[in-house]
Amino acid sequence: MKRNKNHITALAKNMSEKRYQKVKEIYARLTRRYRISVQQTDSNKEVWNTTTSQIQSIVILVVAVAAIGFVIFSLFAWTPLHNMLPGYLKSEARTQIVDNALRVDSLSNQIRLREQYINNIARILTDDIPLDSIVINDSIAASLDSAQSWTPDILTKSSPESEAFARAYEKEEQFNLTMLPAPTEGVLFHIPIKGKIVKTFNPQQGKYGIELKAARQEAFTAVLDGTIVSVAHTISQGYVVAIQHNNNYVSIYRNIADCLGKTGDKVVAGERIGTLGNDSNDTAYFELWHTGIAVDPLKYIAF
Question: pTM for the complete prediction?
């Protein structure tokens, strides 16, 4: 019995020694140092070298992975990047996105309206205005285009006096561009240029302003406070300046030889914006527009 016990003890001791030797071999393999060298391919010259072991490489790799994971977690946890993750968008961010979309849509509409406004100004400056677009604003003038555009009520017969009054009224109002008077209360217009009127307002013949004979190098002046919205130069009309005023008025000055303003400049009533040419044949041309419709300057300005 004592012999069997000693045999078992010796066997266990032998197994423990073998296990210890195996662990020792594994540890020795993990801690064995290796040399890593970087050499040039053409000369085999060593550029860089270092020594490491397997266990050291494993530790460095684990630390690097943990550091990268911590950096990524920090970026998504404490920066706005977490809003990019599905399901993590806050209600405030959603509200801000919707508000920004509405602002962009509103700005797009404003840009579209401004482009239309600039195109209208450009058409005014180049006289590219269809006559129908102006006459159509006056229902009475439009009715004169057709002799049969007006028909009496079939249930009543108008008297000769009523028909005579209607014909006289239509004849009187046929050249009016609008039936609503422009707001001129409290608005005092300055004379655009001193001179003698040689051509009057006549939109039916394409005359949307008045033409004046002025002295050589006579000054053009702004009729109201406003902002210069366009300065263009043409061969036939020299400088053409358009000024936007309050109450939807736009004044246009043509045949300017020397222009003293530029687009975006603020001007006050009576301020000089240019001069007429030095040729005795030069004439000044002035237009006044209200809400996109040409109006007779003689009804607003005392020349």
Answer: 0.44
- Annotate 200-220 with b (16+ C-beta within 10 A) or e (fewer): ebebeeeebbbbbbbeeebbb
Residue 232: what are its φ and ψ, rounded to 5°?
A: -125, 155
Chain center to CA of 274: 31
Q: What is the DSSP letter of 179?
A: S
Spatial separation of the C-alpha atoms in residues 102 and 251, rounded to whole Å: 35
Between the CA of residue 252 and those of 208, 284, 288, what are the distances in Å?
10, 11, 6
Pick 196-299's CATH classification: 2.40.160.10, 2.60.40.790, 2.70.70.10, 3.40.640.10.
2.70.70.10
**Partners of residue 199 on adjacent β-strands:** 211
Q: What tens digit of pLDDT does each residue of 130-189 get?
A: 554 444 444 444 444 443 444 444 444 556 766 776 666 666 655 444 444 445 556 789
